[in-house]
């Protein structure tokens, strides 16, 4: 510490929220630097479950600053819903800060995301349909609307008008598509059709309505709007710890993940500099979070994916259903080729291995240590070429399993030797120490190591 980045080391849903929550005890501020409400963190505190999509995981500490950085894309309706929900449960929201430079997910972004996915049909990416891709696209096109725009009705109206103009063609197509989907409802992708109809244009896309609605969001968000980069500098300069909390994960990175089956931002540690407005030299530590197995939601390559009883066990025992979309996650063995790639890309200084308890009862345990290409070549590193990755077959190291319930383990010595051997194997293979192992969903269900 004091500048500590927490990133997902696999395809997301590794339990970053819990790790952030634990490390936040030692921090002054927790800052999110990318993604939007495509993310979902679940934190269990004193038996009570909290789910967040936008708000940083540290919010349950009233004295800590929680910031949404400029690199996040923010749906104001969702953020205000989260603020209201947490307030109702007695959580103090006065330390929530929102960057004035963060971009807004507008209603047309959500529509375009859904329409794009429906249009792609079988080739769809399996996005969360929260408008993430279209919002980041507008940011890059310089047609984005930022949090600060909410505070000036004239600017806001002009910017919405400009952004809408460039989308008219796509939105017109959407209208046609909507009528077509209405006709076809009952055939094919019923759920998608239903969703597209339900979310179809009209009132919410009206310039006047949208402006009015967003002005009122601005009034409500105003007390939280801040220069969050300065806030990070001041905290770091005072020698206090700031945690930069990543959403999604390394293999979903727009540049370094399994493109095009990725999200539209950069969840790797380097992106914390841009997404929070800090310097590379402000980062002192990088913690990667990985499950003791692997999961993925949405489409895309997943070399160690299982469709057998072990995969079913991971799904059920690990309760592998998406926090954001409720979708079943695809499950498989831990992939150390991919993990070593993530370690290098992020410059990880420590690893947290979560959900170790889920592996109980499915021995022998398997860990992918290399891939074999279709032509028979052995690959020790993560292939950059999509076709090679798509057809890569993993080769496994097998370790003895364990049947004990790990839920009560709190010290390294409480873990069965097979579980310890698994952790040692992973740490040696990727060359990074494991500092923490998760043994259940509860906050206290962790074993600190080393
Ligand atoms: P998008 O981020 O909604 O555009 O979705 C792009 C891809 O990233 C899809 O495969 C999603 O399932 C995946 N994705 C987005 N957010 C998360 C997350 O928080 N956890 C896991 N997968 C995610």
Plain-language structure description:
- The structure is a single chain.
- The strands form four sheets. Strands 9-7-5-2-10-1-11-14-18-19 form a ten-stranded mixed sheet, with helices on both faces. Strands 12, 13, 15, 16 and 17 form a five-stranded mixed sheet that branches.
- Helix 3 (about 105-120) packs across helix 4 (about 130-140), helix 3 packs across helix 6 and helix 5 packs across helix 8 (about 205-220).
- The longest helix has 17 residues, at about 170-185.
- With about 450 residues, it is of the alpha/beta class.
- The chain has helices spanning about 15-25, 75-90, 105-120, 130-140, 155-165, 170-185, 190-200, 205-220, 230-235, 270-275, 310-315, 335-345, 385-390, 415-430, and strands at about 5-10, 30, 40-45, 50, 65-70, 75, 95-100, 105, 225, 240-245, 285-290, 295, 330-335, 350-355, 365-370, 380, 395-400, 435-440, 445-450.
- About 35% of the residues lie in helices and about 20% in strands.
- The site of inosinic acid has 20 residues, from helix 4.
- Inosinic acid binds next to helix 4.
